[in-house]
């Protein structure tokens, strides 16, 4: 089985389920509730823009909110759609469309314009995203990873904010 993220949570989960009994259930439960870091590459200009967005959100909610939290907000959108979709192909097609956006090609055309963003995620969310990729692979071979999905959602959100299609600050503040 191929790795769908650097965290390889699906592989880890499959190995954990081989352990039977109390210790197996305990290990599986602990695994699902822990967190893992993933590193994604994002355009520097969007990194700075989103840092400012996160600072505004922090001021409004009077609490901690960083880019990792922002990405996790986007992850919840994906997981919600995946949970309620009868087929992963619709969601997969959305990611294919995002990957064709001109802003994606421009943003990733020069590596020196990229920076690393570390995202702390729940293992169970990574597992769900890996399962989505595994399901999508049953329909069509693809090179996607969880990290690439996160990068695409990040860029899509930036594109929507720039076009005025989305007010991410209001969305997050009112969602709290």
Question: Overview of this structure, please?
Answer:
With about 180 residues, the chain is mainly alpha-helical. The chain has one domain. Helices cover about 65% and strands about 10% of the residues. It is built from 9 helices and 2 strands, in the order ααβααααβααα. It has a two-stranded antiparallel ribbon with strand order 1-2. The termini are far apart. The mean pLDDT is about 85.
Please supply descriptive tags for the structure shown above.
10% strand; 9 helices; 176 residues; globular; two-stranded antiparallel sheet
Furnish the topology, listing elements before pairings.
Elements: H1 9-16, H2 21-33, E1 35-43, H3 44-61, H4 67-84, H5 88-99, H6 102-107, E2 114-122, H7 123-139, H8 146-162, H9 168-175
Antiparallel strand pairs: 1-2
Number of strands: 2
Spatial gap, N to C terminus: 38 Å
From the alpha carbons, calculate the radius of gyration and give it in angstroms.
17 Å
Number of helices in the DSSP assignment: 9
Round the mean pLDDT to the nearest integer and report it.
Answer: 87
Quick structural summary:
This protein is 66% helix and 10% strand.
